[in-house]
Amino acid sequence: MTICVSTEQVGESSVHDSHESRDSVRDSVRDSVRDSVRDSVRDSVRDSVRDSVRDSVRDSVRDSVRDSVRDSVRDSVRDSVRDSVRDSVRDSVDVRAKGDSLEMRS
Prior knowledge:
Layout: H1 7-105
């Protein structure tokens, strides 16, 4: 049994292999670029959203705690001073009134 292959068939095979190789390289580059861009965009969006949410929550909590503590301390000091002054004045007036009352009796 003899196998005959013409040079035309070999040439066509080489051209066909060359096209397949070119298509394979093109597909590989396309897939690589697509995957790289997809991963880069995904990572960038993920990081940006994560950082933005983290910063927003941190700032909001910090400001809320700061304002709450400031207001609470301010109100507490104000009320304490007001009550202390009021009680002191009242006690002073009561002492004078009692003193005047005792003087009038004598």
